[in-house]
From TrEMBL:
Transmembrane feature ranges: none
Keywords from the named record: Plasmid
Protein name: NmrA family protein
Matches recorded under InterPro entries: Ergot_Alk_Oxidoreductase (IPR051604), NAD(P)-bd_dom_sf (IPR036291), NmrA-like (IPR008030)
PANTHER family: PRESTALK A DIFFERENTIATION PROTEIN A (PTHR43162:SF1), PTHR43162
Gene: azoB
NmrA-like domain ranges (all copies): 2-244
Length: 292
């Protein structure tokens, strides 16, 4: 398996996948709406194919000659039909493997949140395709702590804020680790379908995360449960504020929604990577988390 098409390569989750695949020697093509946003990828040898997931012809054209596809659908803005377009094109072109980052857990029941519930339909489409696939289910991304409003409060007030109660204990994962799992999935010689949860190496509460940040930054950091409305103002776009508020209110009402129970060692045994800890992550991003 040598030629890989990356869907979502200009975003913060997809870009490191394209970068790591290119570094590993794969011939990478990125389907991008705006090639200007992908100039850095072209510089490392990634071929750019202009197109949109709403354009089935463009997706099919980008798929020609590909051995594998990395699939990522936007959490708040994506639609299951976009994934179905990619899967149909992959079937038509004889793609051998699809690696799908589901952006979270694939739940066996409806939650009322379309961003979560669409995952089950995408999984069903993959299962019906006959293509070997790996479905990666990441927990919550460490990069959320780099949202400007959150990082600025760490830098200027020594406070780490996030919209979750202290009762949540989560195994946070970095974009880099999720990308490493994707690369490992393409390298895996086992053709069997794999649906797997992926996570970071530690299961931590908000206060424990703040303590790890403090170790990395050399100062005391405290945790603040951020109201969902405040978080939505920090990240909302295209009128999706109510969906964000509703999701995080649910976490405050039921902390188990965000508490994770991933068998990290089993995931590493199946798809070996070198994971990044929360303290490592804060060390890497020390400059963003420190006042100038």
């Amino acid at each position: 398996m040598k030629k890989i098409l990356v869907i979502g390569a200009t975003g913060p989750q997809g870009r490191p996948v394209a970068q790591k695949l290119a570094a590993a020697g794969y011939e990478v093509t990125a389907l991008v709406r705006d090639p200007a946003r992908a100039a850095g990828l072209a510089d490392i040898g990634v071929r750019l194919a202009a197109g949109d997931l709403e354009d089935a012809a463009a997706v099919k054209a980008a798929m020609v000659g590909q051995d594998g596809v990395f699939l990522l659908i936007s959490f708040f803005a994506g639609r299951a039909a976009q994934a179905e377009t990619v899967i149909a094109a992959a079937m038509d072109q004889g793609v051998r493997r699809i690696v799908w980052n589901a952006t979270g857990p694939i739940l066996p029941f409806d939650t009322g949140n379309p961003s979560i519930d669409m995952r089950r339909g995408i999984l069903a489409a993959l299962e019906a395709s006959g293509i070997s696939f790996v479905a990666l289910q990441p927990t919550v991304y460490m990069e959320n702590f780099l949202i400007p409003a959150i990082a600025q409060e760490v830098a200027t007030a020594d406070v780490l804020a996030y919209p979750m109660p202290e009762a949540v204990r989560c195994q946070w994962i970095s974009h880099l680790d999720a990308a490493s799992y994707a690369v490992a999935a393409f390298a895996d010689p086992d053709p069997e379908t794999l649906v797997i949860e992926i996570a970071g190496p530690e299961k931590l509460s908000g206060s424990e995360i703040a303590e790890r940040f403090g170790r990395a930054l050399g100062r005391q950091i405290t945790f603040r449960p951020m109201p969902p409305e405040e978080f939505a103002r920090a990240i909302s776009f295209d009128g999706n504020e109510e969906a964000i508020i509703g999701y995080y209110r649910g976490i405050f009402e039921s902390p188990d929604m965000m508490t994770t129970h991933v068998d990290h060692e089993a995931a590493l045994a199946r798809l070996p990577i070198r994971p990044v800890s929360i303290q490592d992550f804060a060390t890497i991003h020390r400059d963003l988390l420190t006042a100038g």
